[in-house]
User: Which sequence fits this backbone?
């Protein structure tokens, strides 16, 4: 991995040098020609201003510089799509996003390459938003406090963990696992991470008002002198072309984390993406999950359901949870309106979670953004995958999840 990153850096530097040398040559040619023409005008007496035909001819003789639309671009390891090559070689960041009903709508979530959703105490969920290129994002949040089991998806991407506050177990894990993190609740330099949105304090409450930005993250990152290049080969595998999976039709996915927190994804045939909705209170009414800054609804090419063991921490007065993610299990992969059964395995804290088909082949995703729903394996009946039109309900033998499919009976 380090050798590949160094090769990328050398290629970037070489391309910059070539562009700079080409620009100098063009400037020198044009400048020399103009100087030559101006001398001729002085020597040849008619004092009439001649058009610098030689310059025009010279420029015409110069071969056209072909502009490569992918010049300066490279593949984003989180999405399989092209982004600025200088962003590719950097470590990503993972930001802990508040998903409480009073935290809606959130900012900067549309820019995330991958989003994880995991249950927390209080019948709610929180999001971990992973960004490969984050430096130009002006507002991200509300940022919330860390929970220890969010470190495992963070390790999957060798990211720097961004949060505001932490549970007592998370603080222990940061030290125990030597986790690079920035906590906006601490003193300098971490205190430079975030600010409080005054309007949000008035309308939503103090705990839903902490925000950060790409610029602030970068500033604190440099002050803490974290490693900048990736240290592990943790890239997803992507299909070279958009590919349909063999499986049942999946136009809608609903995950009832709790009575208060229900997530829903609906497939948009025209966009070939899943649009996200959620309900974050007891009313049961779904609303579009949008980004406050853009007004756009969140959309994902890939959706993964990952079943895991979720338990309450014994003796924890706040009802905090523990989720076993260094383990293995089952789940689903949804893309292009179809769903397939998958398996997953994470063999060690810093080893990447590997998703596989039932034959053991590593899963290849379609290029685009991914949403990963980590869900209690003992609540599989609260996950429903449906197709349109809904005519016949069957039970998937592998997971016990309800999958409604189109009947072939007339």
Assistant:
């Amino acid at each position: 991995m380090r050798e590949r990153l160094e090769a990328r850096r050398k290629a970037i530097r070489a391309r910059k040098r070539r562009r700079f040398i080409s620009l100098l040559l063009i400037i020198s040619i044009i400048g020399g020609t103009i100087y030559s023409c101006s001398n001729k005008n002085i020597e040849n007496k008619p004092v009439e201003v001649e058009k610098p035909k030689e310059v025009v001819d010279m420029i015409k003789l110069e071969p056209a510089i072909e502009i490569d639309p992918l010049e300066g671009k490279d593949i984003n390891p989180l999405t399989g799509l092209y982004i600025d090559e200088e962003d590719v070689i950097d470590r990503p960041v993972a930001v802990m996003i508040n998903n409480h009903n009073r935290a809606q709508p959130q900012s900067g979530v549309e820019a995330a390459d991958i989003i994880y959703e995991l249950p927390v105490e209080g019948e709610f969920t929180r999001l971990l938003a992973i960004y490969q290129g984050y430096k130009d994002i002006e507002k991200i949040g509300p940022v919330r406090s860390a929970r220890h089991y969010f470190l495992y998806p963070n390790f999957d991407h060798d990211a720097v963990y961004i949060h505001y506050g932490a549970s007592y177990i998370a603080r222990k894990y940061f030290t125990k696992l030597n986790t690079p993190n920035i906590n906006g609740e601490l003193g300098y330099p971490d205190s430079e991470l975030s600010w409080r949105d005054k309007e949000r304090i008035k309308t939503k409450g103090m705990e839903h008002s902490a925000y950060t930005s790409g610029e602030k993250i970068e500033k604190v990152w440099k002050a803490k002198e974290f490693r900048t290049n990736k240290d592990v080969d943790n890239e997803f595998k992507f299909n070279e072309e958009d590919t349909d999976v063999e499986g049942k039709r999946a136009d809608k996915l609903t995950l009832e984390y709790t009575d208060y927190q229900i997530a829903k994804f609906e497939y948009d045939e025209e966009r070939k993406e899943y649009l996200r909705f959620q309900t974050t209170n007891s009313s049961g009414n779904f609303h579009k999950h949008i980004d406050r800054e853009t007004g756009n609804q969140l959309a994902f090419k890939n959706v993964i359901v990952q079943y895991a063991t979720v338990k309450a921490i014994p003796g924890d007065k706040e009802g905090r949870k523990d989720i076993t993610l260094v383990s293995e299990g089952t789940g689903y992969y949804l893309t292009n309106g179809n769903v397939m059964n998958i398996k997953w395995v994470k063999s060690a804290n810093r080893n990447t979670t590997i998703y596989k088909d039932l034959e053991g082949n590593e899963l290849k995703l379609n290029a685009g953004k991914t949403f990963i729903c980590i869900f209690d394996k003992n609540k599989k009946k609260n996950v429903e995958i449906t197709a349109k039109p809904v005519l016949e309900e069957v039970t998937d033998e592998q997971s016990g999840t309800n999958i409604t499919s189109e009947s072939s009976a007339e």
